[in-house]
Write a structure and sequence with these properties.
Strand content: 5-15%
Largest sheet: 5 strands, parallel
Number of helices: 5
Shape: globular
Strand order of the largest sheet: 2-1-3-4-5
Number of domains: 1
Helix content: 25-40%
Structural class: alpha/beta
CATH topology: Rossmann fold
Radius of gyration: 15 Å
Order of helices and strands: EHEHEHEHEH
Oligomer: single chain
Number of strands: 5
Length: 167
């Protein structure tokens, strides 16, 4: 499956690092700084990704994009389902919506981060959310997400973020 890439004048939404690079940050750079921009639909063969979103259309879109690049995707419709799946399947990357009824993405990532690393507590995680303001981004990062990506997202940006976070 082929997805159109963003034009140079309209780059994809950016994932933000937790700290500025000049502060000795060793985390991946934002999507716009990734090498190989022509190869954003990189091979994700075998990368285990857990996607959680309460909206079925969003889950299906995430899965379609990631699976088209070879990722093994598990989907969850709620934070509770995602937490159970994370402990059972040990994904390499967690992709989560923030605004979900009941337990939201912030609560989910705090529960994940409370786990020992060997039980999934150190799983790289990206918040993909319509809450895009600076305060929302800061709150997602403070809760424990590694990156924050705006919805609607560019498929290339999602693939690039998963590629960079996957061990």
């Amino acid at each position: 499956m082929h997805f159109p890439s963003s034009s140079p004048s309209h780059p994809p939404p950016l994932a933000r690092p937790l700290a500025a690079p000049d502060q000795g940050d060793t985390r991946p750079p934002p999507v716009a700084d990734l090498d190989g921009q022509d190869d954003l639909y990189a091979d994700l063969t075998g990368v285990r990704v857990l996607v959680v979103d309460d909206e079925v259309d969003a889950r299906e879109l995430f899965a379609m994009v990631l699976e088209s690049c070879g990722a093994r995707v598990t989907i969850a419709a709620s934070a509770a389902e995602a937490f159970a799946a994370l402990q059972r399947e040990r994904p390499q990357v967690l992709v989560s919506d923030i605004g979900m009824p009941g337990e939201d993405g912030h609560s989910l990532i705090r529960r994940v981060r409370a786990l020992p690393a060997a039980a999934g507590g150190a799983t790289p995680a990206v918040a993909v959310t319509a809450f895009t303001g600076a305060e929302h981004r800061a709150r997602a990062l403070a809760a424990g997400f590694d990156l924050h990506v705006a919805k609607p997202f560019e498929p290339a940006a999602l693939v690039a973020v998963v590629r960079r976070l996957a061990p």
